[in-house]
Request: fold
Amino acid sequence: MNKDAQKIASTGMTPPMSGQDFADWGLADVAYIKPLEMEGRTFYGVFAANGQQLGLMENRNAAYAALFENDLEPISLH
Reply:
């Protein structure tokens, strides 16, 4: 066990997350909506927490409906 691991163990702190763990965090629970310009029109992409595009909707309300239909919690990126 290295000194950092000993320090974490002795203080009861949670060990740091790996980059992959952080990328996967909330993957099945949260998503975000991002406006996308295509062919001179605005569409709304639905994206998983890791950035994978899940869908493309014609309007923002349809994008939110898709999140709620699939039990995903919308998160704000602001």
Remarks:
- The chain has a mean pLDDT of 81.
- The chain has three helices and four strands.
- Residues 60-69 form the longest helix (10 residues).
